[in-house]
Amino acid sequence: MTRVMKLAFGSVFIGLLVMGLKVIAWWLTGSLALMSDALESLVNVAAALAVVVALRVAERPADSNHPYGHHKAEFFSAVLEGVLIVIAALFILREAYGGFMAPFAPDAPFAGMLINAGASLINGAWAFVLIRAGRAHRSPALVADGKHLITDVVSSVGVLIGVGLALVTGWWVLDPVMAGLVALNILWSGWGVIKQSLSGLMDEAVSNEELTKIRETIALAASSGDAVEAHDLRTRHAGQVTFIDFHLVMPGATTVDEAHMLCDRIEAALMDALPDARVTIHVEPEHKAKHNGIVVLS
User: What is the three-class DSSP state of 61?
Assistant: First the structure.
C-alpha cells in the first residue's frame, strides 16, 4: 500500500474518532452549535471515504479506454469534498437560524467544550499532516481533505467561542449567531476547494514556479547536444502526474539516433526534477525555429 493510500485510510479513522468525540460533546450539552459541529464531522468521514475510492481509481494503470491513466479521479474527489463543505455550511446555517429564533441554555457546557476542543486539536494536527504530505506527493485529494479539516477546525473554534461567550454573558443567542458566522466562512472555503479542483479538470497549466523549473531543466539538458531551441511548451496536471510536451528544434543534419538520444537525456532530466512527469517531445528541423521559445544553453 502506498504512503498516499495509508494517509487516506488514516483520514477515515481520524474522522470517525473526531465525530465520536463531538457526538459525545453534543450529547452532554444539547447545544445546537455543538450538534452542528458534530454533524459536520459526518461530512468529513464521507469525504475521507471518497478520497480512498478516488485514490484507488487513480492508481489503476492506463488501459485502452484510458491511455493517459486514471489520475484525474482525484480531482473528482476534491470537487465532491468542496460540495460537501458547502452542504455542511448550509446545514449549519439552518440550525443557527433555528437556534436564533429559540435560544436556550445547554447542559454541562464546560465538559462539552473541553471534549470538542480536544477533537479540534486532533483535526488540526491531522490536517497539517495531510496538506504537507499531499503537496509532497502531489495529491490534490489529500490536500483538499486537509483543507476540509481546517474548515472544520475553524468551525469548531467559532462554535466554542460562541458557547463560551454565551456562557459568560448569559446571552444564549450568541451560540447560534457564532455558528452562522462560521458557516459563512466555511462556504467561502468550500468554493475555494471546488475552484481549485475544477482548474485541474480543465487542464490548467502548472504554476509559474514549476514552469520556470521545467524551462530551465530543458535548456540545461538540451545543451548536451546540438539542439537549437525548444518551443510550444505545454503543461498540465492530472492528479500526481505532470504532463509536459514541447517541440525541440535540431539541425537538419542530425541523425534520428542522435535526436533520440538527446530526447532521452532531456526526458530523464525532467523526470529527475519532477518524478511524476510524463514527457512528449516532437523533434523539428532548424528551419522550424520560432526564436521565441526556450533558448538552449551553450
Answer: coil
Q: What is the DSSP letter of 235?
A: E
| Contacts (Cβ under 8 Å, ≥6 apart) of 125 | none
Question: Cα torsion at 27, 31, 32, 33 (round to 10°)?
Answer: -110
Residue ranges of alpha helices (H) inside 137-255 are 140-169, 174-201, 208-222
CA 134 to the chain's CA centroid? 7
Distance CA 260, CA 62 (A): 24
Indicate the helix (H) or strand (E) that contains 46. helix 32-58
In degrees and rounded to multiples of 5, residue 87 shows phi and psi of -60, -45
| Distance, C-alpha 62 to centroid of its chain | 23
* Cβ neighbour number for residue 190 with a 10 Å cutoff: 23
Cell, residue 148:
476540509
Q: Per residue in 53-87, is it b (16+ CB within 10 Å) or e — as a string?
A: ebbebbbeeeeeeeeebbbbbbbbbbbbbbbbbbe
pLDDT in tens, 87-104: 878 887 887 888 888 877
Instruction: Enter the pTM of the model.
Output: 0.60
HSE of 48, CA atoms in CB hemisphere, 13 A: 26
What pLDDT, in 10s, does the model give residues 143-197? 877 887 887 888 788 888 888 888 888 888 887 887 787 778 778 777 776 776 7
What are the structural domains of the chain? 3-201 (1.20.1510.10), 208-295 (3.30.70.1350)
Buried b (16+ CB within 10 A) or exposed e, 160-180: bbbbbbbbeeeebbbbbbbbb
